[in-house]
Amino acid sequence: MTVTKSSSILIIGAGTWGASTALHLGRRGYTNVTVLDPYTVPSAISAGNDVNKIISSGQYSNKKDEIEVNEILAEEAFKGWTTDPLFKPYYHDTGVVMSACSSAGLDRLGIRVRPEEEPDVSEVTKPEHFRQLAPAVLKGNFPGWRGYHIRSNAGWAHARNALVAAIREAEKLGVKFVTGTQGRVITLIFENNDVKGAVTADGKIWRAEQTVLCAGANAAQFLDFKDQLRPTAWTLAHIQLKPEERALYKNLPVIFNIEKGFFFEPDEERGEIKICDEHPGYTNMVKSADGHLMSLPFEKTQIPKESETRVRALLSETMPQLADRPFSFARVCWCADTANREFIIDRHPEHPSLVLGCGASGRGFKYLPSIGNLIVDAIENKVPEKVHKLTRWSPDIAVDRKWRDTLGRFGGPNRVMDFHDVKEWTNVQDKDTAKL
To answer: In what residue span(s) does the FAD dependent oxidoreductase domain sit (predicted)?
Structure first.
């Protein structure tokens, strides 16, 4: 299929991957690109619309071919954060501390961090080692914590600002963003065994020569993914620091215990610390009209009380001075897990005009500077074979999928939870929707 610079291209979704795709299409000189999203950009439900996201090169596999491809993708992303003038201002090289407590957690940590391959990594094995990283604020007992301090080439990015920067640059390059009711897709246009665009809530038909589905956790509502995607949610909270406290927490490395949770230094704009409790995720399992089981995302700016308990337990072990502070914001954040946590970036085998950029699997944001480049490669049919082998459309690995598979994640009850079982939610009072 021939794609030219003037081909009409329709992107469904203006979140992290949709925005990155729009940016790279603009950078390659495409002149007829439209992005549809039901929310004003940056999308309120995009996982990338956040203050902090971890930027590191951690692995999720111990298979040689998967490691090789993920290293290629991670290097491209990190190059973007550190050398691309568009993204460089939003990256903070604070370092990351990766840790665990149980023997199983430490074994998993050995896959994610390979100190023998990282020259600037040191072991952190005692509570005092953790406290020494930031003595003024890390005052906890760190019971049973062990791990590694990645001192450089790792840190965090201001996610929302980087996402907005990508969108604004794409607009400058001629990409058109259509939002609100006019951008709310209700169905793809299926014709002659192909996809020819989309229909929006206002009844408008958007025809396109190429359609790119980058709808994140909502992608499976538009296309039968053959159980390749499981929308999974995580939980986060913010704590507002007093103005006089903020300097104490500045340049704090990201503290991440893969069984407890993680937190960052406060963002400079609001002076809030973001904390996430670690767990294998929540689903919202429902039966479709045809009886098929699926997880259905929903928007909520509260978190389960059990999640609040875990957040405060993490703080009591690390920064006890904050453990009882009120939350200034809380949110459920959705992503789409594939069966092996590898991405789906491919041209659909049965719908030749449909390209997929889905399955971020809880690790997709760090690729904001570069993932669109790979998705545009898929549009141009030139994804390298070893990359395509890993990111291909692969319903074969999702046959008889186990919906409660933890996918190697730890924390909380060490199982995938479901929102139908949540008995009580927080009641965080926050009227500033710009934080979404």
So the answer is: 9-377
